[in-house]
Amino acid sequence: MRALLVLEDGTCVKGKGFGAKKTVFGELVFNTNMTGYQESLTDPSYKGQILMMTYPLIGNYGTNKDNFESSEIQPEAFAVSEQCDFPSHRKHGKNISDFLRENDVPGISDIDTRALTIKIRKHGTVKTALATFEDEIDEDSLVQQVKKMPHPTSRNLVDDVSCKTITNLKGKGELNIALVDCGVKRNIIRNLLKHANVIQVPYDIGPKELYELKPHGILVSNGPGDPAHSEIMTSTVKTLNEVASDFPIMGICLGHQILSIVFGAETFKLKFGHRGGNQPVKDVESGRVYITSQNHGFAVKPNPTPELSFTHFNVNDDTVEGMKHTSLPIFSVQYHPEASPGPQDSHHLFNEFMGMVKRKGRGG
Fold first, then answer.
1. Torsion angle in degrees (nearest 10) through CA of 273, 279, 284, 287
2. Stretch 280-285: mean pLDDT, rounded?
3. Average pLDDT over every residue of 332-349
4. Does residue 85 register a pLDDT over 80?
5. Catalytic: 27?
């Protein structure tokens, strides 16, 4: 099977196809992780994107039943330099090609991913098509389709990945945390369950429904797309604005951006985003630098508001990585404290959040 990667500037890259045989469209983004491709492939934050790994060999340890961050592959397609058909690991199940094929997702290999990464770093992320086929394909037609396609973030990607019904998950203790699911990773749920019961709710839950659940705190999850999308503004942002004064709240990634908007901040699209497990973040108060895992294409503008104090910044480009409310028990981080790249540099944030929840429950 052959494959063709077509960028909106007319660049056509030929390679070998694997996974499903089909044509898909998305935003081409790169991830610098050396491992963790299964977690990335099942991360809902990649919805609407074509994921490209910069590390040259992908699939050498296969896939397994334990490393899922959601129930299925989330990116539209997968691009790698070399994919391994014969993985070697004591826990491995399917190889990467069978994993993609089972999820009806196409992949391309035998391409220069480093050159494509340099192009994205120079020009920014681009609208892209990936086609896998056996006979022939009309390259010119595909180029025109890519140029005319709307950008993936123009649609409400959160609606594609959020849960549709309220789910109760039993954890440790008697406290209940409402998890606003914007495309949550399973490891966030695992970390919350170590401390409390979790009530997983859709992203567009109304304030009345949220109050009726009587949670002790709220966590707003990660997810894909534009935090200032009109449908997010009229649902998630509106609800959080109405309930913010009554609950301790923590935000992660997209949740950080949404909470920042609630309190007057603005967001913008990064040139090529932060996606990988080696992003250095500085805590302004302590001066400590954390090595963090990140996956986001938008960021919060560093303009202070009366209600927000920015607490963390990216060492590489000075973008905002964390905030806290000036008077309410609310904070958020742009990075993923559950992902353990450091390996556990940021796990304390869950403890800090639960400390807020307990103090609020005691009237503190």
1. -160
2. 95
3. 84
4. yes
5. no
CATH number of domain containing 54: 3.50.30.20
**Domain count of the fold of the chain:** 2
Of 229, 256, 312, 336, which residue is the catalytic one?
A: 336
> Same structural domain for residues 194 and 316?
yes
Do both 281 and 236 map to the same domain? yes
Whether 242 is catalytic is no
Q: Give the residue numbers spanning the domain of 63.
A: 2-154
Predicted confidence at residue 342, as pLDDT, reads 60
CATH number at residue 228: 3.40.50.880
* 266 counts as catalytic: no
Give the active site residue among 27, 69, 321, 338.
338
Rounded-to-integer distance, Cα 236 and Cα 202, Å? 9
Active-site option among 253, 256, 296, 325: 253
| Residue 240 confidence class, pLDDT cut points 50, 70, 90 | very high
- My answer on whether 223 and 95 are in the same domain is no
Mean pLDDT of the chain: 95
Same domain as 324, residue 181: yes
* Shared-domain flag, residues 175 and 120: no
